[in-house]
Structure formats: C-alpha cells, structure tokens
Amino acid sequence: MTVLTDLSPHLALVTGATGGIGKATCLALAKLGCSIAVHYNTASSTASELVESIKSLGVRAASFQADLSSYDGARSLHASVIKELGHPTILFNNAGLTLGKSGVKDIGEVSVEEFEATWRANCGSAYLLTQLCVPAMVERGFGRVVFCSSVAGFTGGLVGPHYASSKSALHGLVHWLAGAYAKNGLTINGVAPALIEETKMLPGASAELSAKIPIGRLGKPEEIAETVLWIVKTGYVHNKIIAVDGGIKNPAPPISAATTFTSSTSRPATIASAPEAWSEVAENVVGVDEVVARVPVAPNATDDDAAALPLAPEEPLQPERIEFWFL
Question: Which PANTHER family does this one have (predicted)?
Fold first, then answer.
C-alpha cells in the first residue's frame, strides 16, 4: 500500500476533539477529505464551531457528546457515530483527564478512587472504543488506531501517578493490539506528547515549563496532529509509541563532576588566558551550568597529580592536553 493522500473513503472518530490536539487533528484529517466524528464532553459550542470548520472543507462531520469517564458513555458514543456517520476506520483515542491533580509530590495526594477514575477515562474507555471499532476495521481490511499517550508514560512526568500510569498502560495495549491485528490491514500506534500548548493540562506556567524542554519551547497542537496524520497516511508505521516532546524523553546527558573533556587543538598559550577558553567550552556543551575547576594536566599524569599542580598565572601550558572538569 502506498502512502495515502486521499482520505475521503474514511471516517475518523476523534475523542477529546475540542482540545488543542484533538481540534488540530480533526482539521488535518479533514483537509485530506476524511469525514470526522467530533467527540466532546462539555464544550458543545466549541464542538459546533469545529464541525462547521470541517464542513467548510467539503467533508462530512458531526459532533457527539459523551462522558468517557463512564463506560456507558463510550458505548453510547460508538452507537451514535455508527447511526449518523457509519463505522469509523480511523480511531484517535485522544481524550484524557487529570482530575485537576497535577504536580503531585506524594502518593497520598491521589486517592484510589481518583486513581481508578483517571484510568477509566484515560485507558478503559480507549480500550472499549477500540474493542467496539476494530471488528468493522477487520471486516473492511483497513484500520488505523492511534492512542494519545504522554511522555509521562515513559518517564513518570510532572502530573502524578494516576496520570502517568494510565498513559503507560496504553503502551502495553498498543503492543498487544499490534501483534493481534497486523495481518488484518490495521496499524496500531501511539503518540506521546509532552507539554503542548492549548491542552489545559500544563502542570505549571509556560515559561517555567519551557525551561525544562531541551529545544526551549512548548509544543504546538499542530505538531502532534501532523504526527497522527503521518501515521494514518502510511501503512508501514506499526507498533510504535512516538514521542513528540522537544527532546524531554531522551535529553542530552547532564555533565557531572566526574566527567572530563579533553582539548588538544584549542588550548590557550598560558594559564592566565585559560579561563576564557574554558568559559567558551562551557557555553558550547549542553548541560554545563558552571565551570568549577580548571586543571592543566601533564602527560601521563593522574587526576591526583593534576589537582596538585601549581598554577602560576603566566606559566606556559606545556602539557599535551587540558582536561576540563564541570558540574
């Protein structure tokens, strides 16, 4: 199968469609002709506006209210979509919640009832909707199921144990489903965003959170939507959890006091001029906060020997190497 450029034969059910990621994904799919079932819980006016925007692109769309913290809500949503638009061949399980609990520092802050309610909405209803949609996908020989996880599913995240564990559970679900339905024309994948604008789930101020991201900014909903669209268009991406996170999941390793960097090509001529060179190195190495020791090392010297060397201000640097010790 080649990469799909026309999604007009398909219907996508997007849960949590009135949030930033859901809305952007609906529009991205609709621009390729895909019909859209817009799910919402309480944001009825936003859902109506989104439906009109989608229809203006010349495709079918309708909105459907359901509380996905209830399994009956998930069943009702599926039945309503089939009745009005037909069977979805694309399912984006995007809805999620934190129950207003964020920045949790102690496990006692989240009751078992809150834990279970989070799992039911974030994982249980996604499981149930997938269970309901997959048979029609298998019958048609085509299906795309994408789960919206979170980098918290890999790392624990900043929200709390209820949220992180509910997202991590989706990873196992992706892997099992991928093994079970690979031969049926279905692809099963997940996207794992981190700290995305317009999601109403940011655990802090934007400036504070941006500082935690290696690329220095929050993600945009459209960047997640384009990832989902890419997964839908290609039939060869399968059984993957794709982090879209600005580098949070696998940042450059921090430089510790035990780490040394060696320079033999740009070492300064004298110890007096060395600090400028060390500072320049520090500015260009990811993770360096401050230079705390500057030690010229003689050839074949041990670290203990190097630490004991006198540092005369104008002493020429005779050694063949200089080791920089950083925080």
Answer: 3-OXOACYL-(ACYL-CARRIER-PROTEIN) REDUCTASE, 3-OXOACYL-[ACYL-CARRIER-PROTEIN] REDUCTASE FABG
pLDDT higher than threshold 70 for residue 5:
yes
d(CA 161, CA 103): 10
Residue bearing tokens 């802050």: 109
**Residues 242-299: pLDDT tens digits?**
999 888 776 555 444 334 444 444 444 444 444 555 555 555 444 444 444 444 444 4
Domains of the chain, residue spans: 11-244, 260-326
Catalytic residue among 40, 127, 163, 181: 163
**In whole angstroms, what is the distance from residue 72 CA to residue 52 CA?**
28
CATH class of 11-244: alpha beta
- Judged by DSSP in three states, 145 sits in strand
Q: Cα–Cα distance between 92 and 72 in angstroms, integer?
A: 19
Asked whether the beta carbons of 90 and 144 are under 8 A apart, the reply is: yes
Give the pLDDT of residue 51. Answer: 98
Least Cα distance to 28 among 226, 224, 182 occurs for: 226
Output the average pLDDT for the chain: 82
Evaluate if residue 3 carries a pLDDT over 60. yes
Contact by Cβ (8 Å): 157, 193: no
What's at 255, amino acid-wise? Answer: I
Q: Are strands 143-148 and 186-193 parallel, antiparallel or unpaired?
A: parallel
Nearest by Cα to 159 from 201, 126, 200, 209: 201
Taking a C-beta distance cutoff of 8 angstroms, is the pair 102, 195 a contact?
no
Are the C-beta atoms of 118 and 109 separated by less than 8 Å? no
Could you please report the per-residue DSSP string of 279-312?
HHHHHTSTT---EEEEEEE-TT--HHHHHH----
